[in-house]
Amino acid sequence: MVRQDGKRNFVMLDGGAQTRQFTGRMPRQAALKAARRLEGFERFRSEAQAKPHATEIRLRERGTDRIHVYDAWAWTDEVPPDAPGWMNGSVSQITRGNVSKRGIEHSDD
User: ∠ CA 70-106-99 to the nearest 5 degrees?
Assistant: First the structure.
């Protein structure tokens, strides 16, 4: 269901249970937010190392029966030199994430 500002709400499904909610205009935007919050990403120092260890995430769009299925991975990276001023000095590493869409399923509920 689309809000007035054009954003939609997606709920992450974990073993059938709804765990967290992510918001975005498109499903991929919400999936990228979810990817950055994956557990255990700290051991990967680059995208090349993290991608083979992709984790399946399932996001159900609120108000619909659609479940968006993604392969997601995350890794830590150094702060880029063009980072905003508030980030320089206070943070030495950032979390980056990426996703690859597998498809859309429809729930029976």
Answer: 10
Pairing outcome for strands 8-14 and 17-24 = antiparallel
Each domain of the chain, given as residue ranges in start order, spans 8-104
Whether this model's pTM surpasses 0.90: no
Please compute the mean of the pLDDT values over residues 74-101 and round it to a whole number.
85
Give me the helices (H) in the chain, please. 27-36, 47-50
CB-based contact 81:43 (threshold 8 Å): no
- Percent of the chain whose predicted confidence (pLDDT) is above 70: 94
Beta strand extents in the chain (DSSP E only): 8-14, 17-24, 55-61, 66-78, 93-106
Question: What sign does the CA torsion over 74, 80, 85, 90 have?
Answer: positive
Those residues whose C-beta lies under 8 Å from the C-beta of residue 14, and which sit 6 or more positions away, are none
